[in-house]
Write a structure and sequence with these properties.
The complex is a heterodimer. By secondary structure, chain A is of the alpha/beta class. In chain A, 40% of the residues lie in helices and 11% in strands. Chain A has helices at residues 7-31, 36-53, 77-87, 127-141, 159-170, 200-207, 219-227, 262-272, and strands spanning 68-71, 147-152, 176-182, 210-215, 234-239. In chain B, the strands form three sheets. Chain B has a seven-stranded mixed sheet with strand order 3-2-4-5-7-6-12, sandwiched between helices. The chains are: A alpha/beta, B alpha/beta.
Chain lengths: 273, 320
């Protein structure tokens, strides 16, 4: 996969992201289930990782030196599954089984069913500690792989993240990158209305992390910060918009797990075309 | 009949630590993860021998278990060791999602289980863990009864590709010696027959097995022939052994745990569905008060005398 931030790479990321949004929307509408708002806030981040940053081989999903991507916001399977499909881990027909009884595409990812999935996430606050363990394992063995973990911003309210933040900083895990999908909305409210997170950057800096903020919908900027080296664990606060790409969904908590009706679906398809 | 068990008492923590250190020497994938529990996990020797292979996350059980899953992802074989009460209770969702459901090759090692921390009170007792772990698919749960079973369990856990919970104690127990047939084999999921008998069967686990053997010895003097099993694997439970025990017509379970959901619960489920039988369950019924281990055991009937009495009750119910 491309490893430069050439215009070609950015074009590929944008093209893949556009397809992932359209395909995730279709999955959610067809099955009347899903978390489309969080899928769309994370789409450009996940597309940048899979089509510009991560080192992997779809024919060897267990390759020991693969870069790891841990999807801690496990409800956002619309973006994860479409990315894995676009990367070539499985045929597109599998997406048609999304959340059907017995499908390998569970409502939350399962590594035992699906190549490319590193951990069975869903309950929040689990992915970051697991990614920390993966990074420790790599550091112990002198492995060259890098570990990336994506959490929601509401998910940062789970205390287990802060346990991981301390451990990763203490051990100087420069091979670990945390990306926070900072869309400022959680399931039912703004994060500022429940337990506010700001100043999130200062919190991570105080814990001993290298922190950088970025526009989470700008693949060129994302590519730059996600490939930059650091001598500390790196926290990328990606400013995003929940429901990004569909006008009536953008920045609305109700689209955390809303499903468009027929009329809304037509509007959304046009906007994502 | 000979009493196989020795009079000498052993702290199984030594068997756990020396076995892990020996395994680590031969297999670089083996690492330890602890929560500021090097001392209570008896891992001082491991740390001295392999300082770079011990991950101490501090007092943080959720990340401890998550880190274990991540280490397994990276190809390591992590032994995640902490006091059972916090390892299982505090991090139960991580045990479920990151280890059991993710099917990661993580070995969870609960230390000072049961009521070993008697005086510290119910927060520090780990008597709910059988119920919690038994409810989780895919995680083999082993409770060694003596130093030999401890060594075998640690070796097996290291060689087995999958999640394991080892429940260890720090209470001193005798070496049980060989099975009743004179051989000694450790097969996970298979209970060991420590004494044969047809009037009743006692299914005991961990620190209680030697008390069950003493109870059977006392009952033999009354002319009662009582089978004793060391049920070292709680999950999956040995159905053949349990149903074989049920055929004696009187069953007793004895465990250092809550009987509801524990071995007693498991045996009740299995026998009532397949071979209903009078059943006496010895163990704990609820939170225990502060007290030394002997006092807590005495109050619960976890003594040779208490187990013998329960066995007589079971046999009486069979006659009736």
């Amino acid at each position: 996969m491309p490893a430069t931030d050439s215009p070609e790479t950015v074009d590929i990321i944008k093209e893949k992201a556009a397809w992932m949004r359209r395909r995730a929307l279709r999955m959610v509408v067809e099955k009347n289930l899903g978390h489309i708002g969080g899928d769309f806030s994370a789409t450009d981040i996940v597309a940048t990782l899979f089509f510009g940053v991560l080192r992997y081989d779809v024919d060897r999903p267990d390759w020991a030196d693969r870069d790891r991507f841990v999807m801690s916001k496990g409800h956002a399977t619309g973006v994860l599954y479409t990315a894995l499909c676009a990367a070539g881990y499985f045929e597109e027909a599998l997406l048609d089984t999304y959340m059907e009884p017995g499908s390998r595409l569970n409502g939350h990812p399962n590594r035992n069913y699906l190549p490319g999935v590193e951990a069975n996430t869903g309950p929040l606050g689990h992915g970051f500690p697991i990614a920390t363990g993966i990074a420790i394992s790599g550091a112990m063995r002198g492995a060259t792989y890098r570990t990336y973990v994506l959490t929601g911003d509401g998910e940062q309210q789970e205390g287990s993240n802060w346990e991981a933040a301390m451990v990763a900083a203490h051990r100087g895990l420069s091979n670990l990158t945390l990306i926070v999908d900072r869309n400022r909305l959680q399931q039912g409210a703004r994060t500022s209305e429940t337990t506010a997170l700001d100043p999130l950057d200062d919190k991570y800096r105080a814990f001993g992390w290298d922190v950088i903020e970025v526009d989470g919908h700008d693949p060129a900027a994302l590519h730059q910060v996600l490939t930059a080296k650091s001598d500390k664990p790196r926290c990328v606060i990606a400013h995003t918009v929940k429901g990004k790409g569909v006008s009536f969904m953008e920045d609305k908590a109700k689209w955390h797990h809303g499903v468009p009706n027929a009329e809304e679906y037509e509007i959304a398809k046009k906007e994502l075309a | 009949m000979m009493v196989a068990q020795t009079a000498e008492r052993f702290d199984c923590r030594k068997a756990w630590a020396t076995t892990l250190e020996a395994l680590a020497q031969d297999d670089e994938r083996i690492v330890a993860v602890v929560n500021d529990s090097v001392g209570s996990s008896n891992l001082g020797g491991f740390q001295a021998a392999y300082p770079d292979r011990l991950v101490n996350v501090g007092i943080a059980e959720q990340v401890m278990v998550g880190v274990g899953a991540g280490l397994a992802n990276g190809g390591h074989i992590p032994f995640v060791s902490a006091a059972s009460c916090f390892l299982t209770g505090r991090a139960l969702e991580q045990v479920k999602a990151d280890v059991a459901y993710s099917n990661y090759n993580v070995k969870l090692v609960g230390q000072s289980s049961g009521v070993a921390y008697g005086e510290l009170g119910a927060t520090h007792h780990s008597i709910e863990d059988f119920a919690w772990l038994r409810a989780l698919p895919q995680i083999t749960t082993i409770v060694p009864a003596d130093p030999w079973e401890t060594e075998q369990a640690v070796k097996w856990a290291a060689s087995h590709d999958g999640p394991v919970y080892l429940r260890l104690s720090r209470m001193k127990v005798p070496d049980l010696g060989p099975d009743v047939d004179g051989t000694r084999a450790f097969v996970p999921g298979k209970a060991r027959v420590m004494r044969q008998g047809d009037d009743a069967a006692i299914l005991a686990t961990g620190t209680i097995v030697h008390l069950a053997l003493a109870a059977a010895e006392a009952l033999a003097l009354e002319g009662l022939s009582v089978r004793v099993l060391s049920v070292h694997t709680i999950n999956p439970l040995d159905a053949d052994a349990v149903l074989g025990a049920a055929k004696t017509g009187a069953v007793v379970t004895a465990e250092e745990a809550l009987v509801s959901g524990g071995l007693g619960g498991a045996v009740a489920e299995m026998t009532s569905a397949n071979h209903p039988v009078p059943l006496e369950r010895i163990g704990f019924a609820g939170f225990q008060s502060t007290g030394d281990v002997d006092t807590l055991f005495e109050a619960a009937g976890l003594t040779a005398t208490g187990i013998a009495e329960a066995t007589r009750r079971a046999i009486t119910r069979k006659m009736g």
